[in-house]
Write a structure and sequence with these properties.
Length: 128
């Protein structure tokens, strides 16, 4: 259980670091709409990640195990709200869609980084 907690903490920290780095790089390198896409996409996906963590933690804590239907209902409600926000952002031309895509990829990138780091630890541990 210790390694899972370590990976979760790493992914959570890396989400915010990648979000900040991508947002600052977007404002320096790209147009304002592209940068706003990165910011809004990063906020949407990072907040969803934290809310999913809280939902699962509450649902899987032994004193009050929640029904899987409650967990799924909350997941789909967050999914629909996120989809609606993304629809408004794109249809209203508030953000550039590619910038939004980059922002929405923050959590995926942090999970990939965590996976690669854990794999390299395993590979080099086996090599020694």
């Amino acid at each position: 259980m210790k390694i899972q907690q370590h990976i979760l903490e790493f992914v959570t920290r890396t989400n915010w670091v990648l979000f900040c780095v991508a947002s600052i790089a977007g404002y320096i390198i790209a147009s304002p709409k592209f940068a706003m896409g990165i910011v809004f996409g990063g906020l949407i996906v990072t907040i969803n990640f934290h809310l999913l963590y809280r939902t699962l933690k509450k649902a899987l804590t032994p004193p009050q195990l929640a029904s899987h239907n409650v967990v799924l209902a909350k997941y789909y409600a967050r999914f629909m709200v996120s989809g609606f926000i993304i629809f408004i952002l794109i249809s209203g031309h508030y953000v550039h869609p590619l910038g939004l895509f980059v922002g929405l990829s923050v959590v995926v990138a942090s999970i990939m980084i965590a996976t690669m780091l854990e794999l390299t630890k395993l590979i080099f541990k086996e090599a020694i």
